[in-house]
Amino acid sequence: MSANFIISQIGSKLRELRKIRNIGLTGLSEKSGLSIPMISKIENGRVVPTLPSLLELLEALKIEPQIFFSELNSEQHFDQYKYIASEDYKEYIKEENAIGFLYKSILEHSLEGFSYQITHVTLQPQNQRPKVTTDAFEFMYILDGEIDYYLNDKLIKLKKGDSLFFDGRIPHVPLNQKNHIASYIVIYFFNN
């Protein structure tokens, strides 16, 4: 079990626990003393929480740190192959203020020195959100439709079959300006 894997899983595990306990971002913010935007960034893997912040969140969610980390550790087992049925993809919200984005995590795994997450993303027509950054390299492959991808102020027009690899620390946003759904696979590469 690499420390990198644990770090990359903290946010999604916190989001999962918050949803299981039926606590909204506002409620968790009030209980933990952390701002809603900060909690959202932590849950979406855009920021790694400081130890004091993580402990505040765990206390607000009423889970002991050793239990939290043991649950992260138990999710990493791998037996030479892994079959994942489409109904087992885990839907999640990456940005609370995004409109027309549907994220489904297919696989999250760690290898020597880095971790990765493979996600299927669906963009509704006229989707919108501000540009964001991610502390990972990103590889995306367009499955269907056309996407206007903004990296800083540069526009890259992507169509079915195209791919893009970039440093996620560049502010970015994919926009679907067409009248039909677009979708892509994105692989986030997290390293030390």
Describe the protein.
The chain is α+β, with helices and mostly antiparallel strands and 192 residues long. It folds into two domains: 72 residues, 434 Repressor (Amino-terminal Domain) (Orthogonal Bundle); 106 residues, Jelly Rolls. It is 28% helix and 36% strand. It is built from five helices and nine strands; from the N terminus they run αααααβββββββββ. A six-stranded antiparallel beta sheet has the order 1-2-3-9-4-7. It has a three-stranded antiparallel beta sheet with strand order 6-5-8, with no helix packed on it. Helix 1 packs across helix 5. The radius of gyration is 17 Å and the shape is globular. The model has no long low-confidence stretch (mean pLDDT 87).
Which terms would index this structure?
six-stranded antiparallel sheet, 5 helices, three-stranded antiparallel sheet, 36% strand, Jelly Rolls, single chain, alpha+beta, 434 Repressor (Amino-terminal Domain)
Structural class: alpha+beta
Which CATH C-level class of the largest domain is it?
Mainly Beta
Shape: globular
Order of strands across the biggest sheet?
A: 1-2-3-9-4-7
What percentage of the residues does DSSP assign to strands (E)?
A: 35-45%
Number of helices: 5
Summarize the biggest pleated sheet.
Answer: 6 strands, antiparallel
Could you tell me the number of beta strands? 9
Low-pLDDT runs of 5+ residues are none
Number of domains: 2
Q: Let me know the CATH homologous superfamily of the largest domain.
A: Jelly Rolls
- What letter string, H or E per element, gives the SSE order? HHHHHEEEEEEEEE
Distance between the termini: 14 Å
